[in-house]
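idk why but the lab printer keeps eating my pages so im just putting this in chat instead. protein + glycinamide ribonucleotide:
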Amino acid sequence: MNIAIFASGAGSNAQKIIEHFRENKTIHVGLIVCNKPGAGVLKIAADNAIPVLLIEKERFFRGDAYVPEMNLHEIGFIVLAGFLWKIPDALIRAFPNKIINIHPALLPKYGGKGMYGMHVHEAVIASGDTESGITIHYVNEKYDDGEAIFQATCTIEPIDTPELLAQKIHRLEHQYFPAIVEKCIEKL
Ligand code: GAR
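predcted complex ->
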């Protein structure tokens, strides 16, 4: 089973997933898909000798959504790890219940378009909430809307800033995401 990781940022979650499956006999990270030249995740892919597919908007949203490339690399499961574009219907149809996303908040709160990365943590801190967390969910045609698979929480202390909350959230993501990916694949 080959996984494609879609990521456009630093790629710390991609790194953890790659490490998790490095010795796995049946599950293999076969492709990193990225829409940002220069993103940190590209160096991680190079360091781990994983092929990269750099995608562009027009073909992703109005073309074939790169489904032929997924087939070429024999991808059977897609993990979104800090990927900010909406997933086009063509890709969802090609991978029914085989695309999962991680979101850095407790959905359905703080989800939707524009709610990513630090924007999420800033909104959470501004709200005065005393807890936040992560949500791992299946991807459907709407932003942050598919069936939830897993949530984990952390407390927010009065001294927490968006930056400190981001660190707590990253720790939760790194702790849980790779194992949840494995569980979802085992269920297929
Ligand atoms: C992660 O915190 C992930 O939850 C978030 O982007 C970060 C990527 O970090 N995703 C979203 O906000 C999606 N709406 P990373 O590049 O270090 O893995």
